[in-house]
Design the sequence.
């Protein structure tokens, strides 16, 4: 029997105790600490997966900012690491390798979510993403992308708002809330070691129950609308064939989630372009 392939996508904003960009950006004074905490959380999940399924193949996708945050030398050596950008499928690179099960670690709520820490959607200058009329953050977008490859998302961790966002899309989905948001840059948080203990236990539980979960997918064609903070980004986006502009919003039709995701990645990159 072939080994179970598990993709663990790790973001940083939803890691226990992290509350400020100084901890999540390379220029920040506490970034080294943020990287270490992110790596410890990833290791906890890898350990939990392998305790439940010792023969599993675990891919860890560094999915925050530059995609070069996890400390490779400190990552559990039993896992393989996907890092660097740009790359096909972005935060879920590894689906192409046949991943059968997906886990979200350190994820955050969508832009504008109330009571959420460091909430945003792909880029600070993206105000909202709607797919077939439903608003989605990275949790929703990535869940649909995984589902389009036939892979269920069996676990999500982050603050309480992020976990609620996940269960609204995946009823009965297993979550690990590691902090309660008190504002964009404030939280009531678990101790990092306590959070890792819970992640390890939950990851094992999710793997043992993975057959109970079904992929969540959206059938194409997909109507995608993106609200942008900067009109200039909308100007740039409108130069791409197939993208139409309405005020600060742009819209396009995608054949499937892979195509939609590629254009969303491009829009996120456009928001960071200078004059």
Sequence:
């Amino acid at each position: 029997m072939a080994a179970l392939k598990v993709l663990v996508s790790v973001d940083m904003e939803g890691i226990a105790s992290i509350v400020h960009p100084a901890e999540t950006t390379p220029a920040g004074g506490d970034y080294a600490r943020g990287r270490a905490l992110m790596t410890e959380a990833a290791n906890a999940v890898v350990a939990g997966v392998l305790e439940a399924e010792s023969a599993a193949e675990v891919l860890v996708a560094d999915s925050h900012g530059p995609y070069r945050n996890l400390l490779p030398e400190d990552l559990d050596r039993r896992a393989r690491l996907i890092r660097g950008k740009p790359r096909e499928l972005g935060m879920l690179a590894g689906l192409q390798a046949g991943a059968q099960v997906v886990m979200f670690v350190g994820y955050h709520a969508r832009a504008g979510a109330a009571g959420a820490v460091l909430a945003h959607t792909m880029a600070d200058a993206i105000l909202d993403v709607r797919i077939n009329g439903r608003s989605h953050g990275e949790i929703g977008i990535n869940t649909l992308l995984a589902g389009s490859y036939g892979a269920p998302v069996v676990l999500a961790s982050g603050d309480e708002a992020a976990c609620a966002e996940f269960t609204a899309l995946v009823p009965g989905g297993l979550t690990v809330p590691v902090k309660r948001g008190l504002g964009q840059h404030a939280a009531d948080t678990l101790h990092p070691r306590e959070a890792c203990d819970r992640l390890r236990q939950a990851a094992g539980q999710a793997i043992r129950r993975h057959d109970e979960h079904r992929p969540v997918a959206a059938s194409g064609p997909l109507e995608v609308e993106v609200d942008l903070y900067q009109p200039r980004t909308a100007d740039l986006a409108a130069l791409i064939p197939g993208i139409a502009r309405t005020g600060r919003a742009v819209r396009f039709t995608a054949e499937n989630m892979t195509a939609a995701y590629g254009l969303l990645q491009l829009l996120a990159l456009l928001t960071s372009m200078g004059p």
